[in-house]
Amino acid sequence: MRRVAILGAGQSRFGKRTDVRLDELAWESFREAMVESGVTQRDIDSFIVSTLGGWSAEVLPAVVVGEYCGLTPKPTMRVEAACASGSAAVYQAYTMIASGHAEVVSVIGVEKMSESSTPTTVELIGRAGNYFWEFENYGMTFPAYYALYASSYMNRYGATEEDLALVAVKNHYYGSFNPKAHFQRRISVDDVMKSIYVADPLKLLDCSPITDGSATVILASEESVKKFTNEPVWIRGIGAASGTANLSKRDNFLGLEAARKAADDAYKQANIERPISKLDLVEAHDCFTIAEVMAYEDLRLVERGEGYKLIKEEQTYKGGKIPVNLSGGLKAKGHPIGATGVSMIGELSKQLLGRIGGERQADIKHGWALAHNVGGTGHYAYVTILSLDKNGDVL
Ligand code: COA
After folding, report:
1. Total domains in the fold of the chain
2. Is 335 known to be catalytic?
3. Which protein residue has the closest C-alpha to ligand 1 atom 23?
4. What lines the ligand 1 site, CB under 6 Å?
5. Whole-number mean pLDDT of the chain?
């Protein structure tokens, strides 16, 4: 297998983007990634578009995006793994390059969730599970799935709604420094506690929003990297796993088994034994506040039942044991489903290279970062590990 690097990344402004079409939105991030990497359309062998779709009028998004971005007639496909679509697309591009099938591949994640007409966006997201059993019979909405996990976690470990709210407060704090974030306002625990219940115990400010946006990363083989940049970021591990469609078949509601398995696979590939002492930062899938707390544990940053203490002690802020979601996370940066995983990986590559700057820039001591991206309620899970170093351990 060949080594694979990230040459450059881009992201559109996230939010309600009624000012652009799907293809125009994709172009915003693709253009930035081309500028950062020095790659032009001519250099790209293949492109992959990650999008959940269903709300957009476009049924063939990859083709529409490809034409607008000047990539036709390169080979393309659309990749879908619910909210983990972006990481799944990066995984696909990685395997194409590692196997020698391609040299340079662009991954463009894009979603225009606000375009939905019928059924509504909230209903469409609610189908992200076992539709006929859970949604049609019991009317489970997507926040309700995570509410099951939140209730179960709080009951077992004694965490409170205020503890969960601290995740939203942190992520809105960092979102306030990110000009491309959906929400750029800070909030307090009191704001979260006073916000309306969406699915008890989760309130409006425990939830990620409905977001439009795009993100792009351009990947290349080790042989091709040197033509474009002296500052690549290497993909050192990608773990992937799936979970049952039907939540009633899960062993418990305290963590996401698929995420745990994906993390363990990725750590093995990257030869990481104590993640908290090796990773400089993490982008975690905080679609709901409880999801970030479970991520701390699924990723083995702490033991089971200890996750909520990590945020209570502010250890996931910059300067703490392991900064998480300095981008603002899904909660404040936004969650345009197909773009989310690509945006996490692009953000981390810029973080490792010191290109974020300001309040959001992490201290890079070891040169390692991790993206944790979950689709559905652990129906899909991808964990991607990046490093500044091609094959060594730490810098
Ligand atoms: N966080 C903070 N503010 C939010 C928000 C969120 N998640 N969602 C909406 N708002 C704000 C809006 O900006 C708006 O504010 P304004 O009145 O000042 O403009 C207000 O709340 C109402 O917005 P609206 O779009 O009508 O909200 P809604 O009630 O239709 O939807 C949720 C709210 C929580 C149901 C919706 O955001 C949701 O389903 N989120 C979860 C998304 C999800 O499941 N994604 C997949 C996860 S993997």
Report:
1. 1
2. yes
3. 209
4. 83, 122, 125, 142-143, 183, 198, 204-205, 207-210, 287, 335
5. 94
**CATH no. for residue 106?**
3.40.47.10
Cβ-in-10-Å burial (0-12, 13-18, 19+) of 318 comes to middle
Residue pair 296/260 in contact (Cβ under 8 Å)? The answer is no
Question: For 153-212, what is each residue's pLDDT tens digit?
Answer: 999 999 999 999 999 999 999 999 999 999 999 999 999 999 999 999 999 999 999 999
Residue 90 domain-assigned (yes or no) = yes
- Does some domain include residue 150? no
Ligand 1, atom nearest to 375 Cα: 48
| Report field, pTM of the whole predicted structure over 0.90 | yes
Report the separation in Å between the CA atom of 208 and the middle of ligand 1, taken as the mean of its atom positions.
7
Helix (H, G, I), strand (E, B) or coil at 97: helix
**CB-based burial label for 304 (10 Å; 0-12, 13-18, 19+):** middle
Nearest atom in ligand 1 to 121's CA: 39
In whole angstroms, give the CA distance from residue 122 to residue 120.
5
- For 8, the domain range is 4-117+210-225
Residue 23 is assigned to a structural domain of this protein: yes
| Structure-token pair, residue 287 | 């679609």
- Closest by Cα among 230, 229, 237 to 33: 229
Active-site choice (69, 83, 207, 287): 83
Q: What is the pLDDT of residues 120-142, one digit of tens each?
A: 777 777 777 777 677 777 778 88
Please name the residue that has the structure tokens 């036709």. Answer: 72
pLDDT at 152: 98
83 is catalytic: yes
- Determine, yes or no, domain membership for 43: yes
Please compute the mean of the pLDDT values over residues 250-258 and round it to a whole number. 96
The rounded Å distance from CA 242 to ligand 1 centre is: 27
Q: What is the per-residue pLDDT for 120?
A: 74
- Substitution candidate for ligand 1 out of 113, 172, 204, 377 with most atoms within 8 A of CB: 204
In angstroms, the Cα distances linking 135 to 53, 190, 338, 377 are 19, 32, 22, 14
